[in-house]
Amino acid sequence: MFFHIVLERNMQLHPRHFGRDLRDKLVTKLMKDVEGTCSGRHGFIVAITGIENVGKGLIRDGTGFVTFPVKYQCVVFRPFKGEILEAVVTMVNKMGFFAEAGPVQIFVSNHVSTIYFLSLLFYL
Question: How far is the CA of 106 from the CAs of 42, 88, 117, in angstroms?
Fold first, then answer.
């Protein structure tokens, strides 16, 4: 469900941010751009926990922007099929019910087996 992984991303920074606190501005931009996003490969990025490496910047021709390769550690939320989650039921209708577990919206149909349905309700 939750994993602590290392990811890489190329970050572009405007020249006005160059100075003594360049690294801090880069980390702040990374957090703003990455936290709360979702990818099919890694899941929902909950939080950045650390910066492993900031590579040398490469100046882009004609713009002045600099691209920095950043390697960072983060916590991701990636649910799997068949996994039991603690969720909050948000809507019930005749076809089934909707629930939310963090950023994930779940639909459970009435057409699943009764044993599975009851065990799911027991955990909710």
Answer: 19, 10, 13
Closest to 124 in 3D by CA, of 113, 106, 1: 106
Residue 40 DSSP symbol: T
Provide the residue type at 27 as one letter.
Answer: V
Contact of 67 with 57, CB cutoff 8 Å: yes
| Three-state SS at 36 | coil
Q: Where in the chain is the domain with CATH 3.30.1490.120?
A: 2-77
* Topology classification of domain 2-77: Dna Ligase; domain 1 (3.30.1490)
pLDDT tens digits along 50-109: 999 999 999 998 888 999 999 999 999 988 888 888 889 999 988 888 998 888 888 888
Q: C-alpha angle with apex 96: 46 to 43, nearest 5 degrees?
A: 20
pTM of this structure: 0.74
